[in-house]
Design brief:
Order of helices and strands: EEHHEHHHEEEHEEHEEHEHEHHEHEH
Number of strands: 14
Radius of gyration: 23 Å
Structural class: alpha/beta
Shape: globular
Largest sheet: 4 strands, parallel
Strand order of the largest sheet: 7-9-11-12
Strand content: 5-15%
Number of helices: 13
Length: 401
Amino acid sequence: MIAPGRMIAVDLEAGKLYSETEILDTLSAKHDFTGWLQNIIELETVIEDGPEPRRYDGEELDRRQIAGGHTLEDVDTVLDAMAKDGKEAIGSMGDDTPLAVLSEKWRPLSHFFRQNFAQVTNPPIDPLREESGMSLKTRFKNLGNILAEDEAQTNVLVMESPFMTTGMYERLIAMDTVGKVATLDCTFPLPEDDAKAGKGLRVALDSLRDEAVAAVEGGASMIVLTDEASNAERMRVPAILAAAGVHARLVQKGLRSFVSIIVRSSEAMDSHSFAVLVGVGATAVNPYLSLELLQARHAQGRYGQVPVTKVIGNYKKSIEAGLLKILAKKGISVISSYRGGYEFEALGLSRALVAEFFPGVTSRISGIGLAGIETKLRDLHLSAWATKTPAIPIGGFYKFR
């Protein structure tokens, strides 16, 4: 008699019946699993504690905030709430914000996506009560053949979540066990006028995809996509397009499992933007500009006597809680099952763009393409860098064209 939840196995060639205990004993004796597990490096104990660099301040930080698409409203209502309470900002039940494609102002590319959810009356998973059954654990380095059962599968680095502070990133890259790291520049020259908009972004994305393939074929175990090199002459490539393009190309070439993708983005701020980046293939995300803004506001005394490490820790905690909530809506318990799964719907992106960079994503409302995105980004870039005194927008996403 087999008890509920138990199992048996039959070896037809040997003519032997295995009980559940015998199954476990047989499988555990096949390899030195205890020795293999010692190969796994838990990154939290190695890179989490340490200083957080601060590179931008004053006018430079203001310009980068504008170019990143962050308004005062974003920082005051979204970022501050997470930094103070370690929780996402509380809002209304309904979302009556106009679609990003209808807005007169540029909205972050993550606003063109809406999360999918399981079509049932109750949440498939409760991220609070069932927290022990969910995980944001993220593995780095060459994962090789994920179906293989060998020691190479345990020669990895593990972090508790895909959220990576700037200090954690720098300490990770400095580790000898990381392997070869390829850093790809996600910026391109500012187009001279609107007539040339669209070509520069296309060239930059094609180049990024080719560079990523060459890097993996050259032995890189980690790719870093960063827009830090943006300045008055160079515009940033939207991190979501960069990550999606690189991920999709590596999948097509059969190379994706051999490399990790770290995205260092000036655009990432809330849990939704993190979820979209992970959903299009990013292994980890470093919101370096949001962290710079937090440190600047802490220096201004906006968070009272709370240490800056606590402020950053609260921000990290809130993003992680938001990611768990998003996973729960789809009934997904581990983030590795969400990564690269495109669990969202595109709203207001051209269907050609969606088919190329987000294969399989539903797009019921077509809209802006690469040329339109570059034109909008150029206007945003000029408002940040082409003025003597940059003025950070207050908000105003609700205004239609």
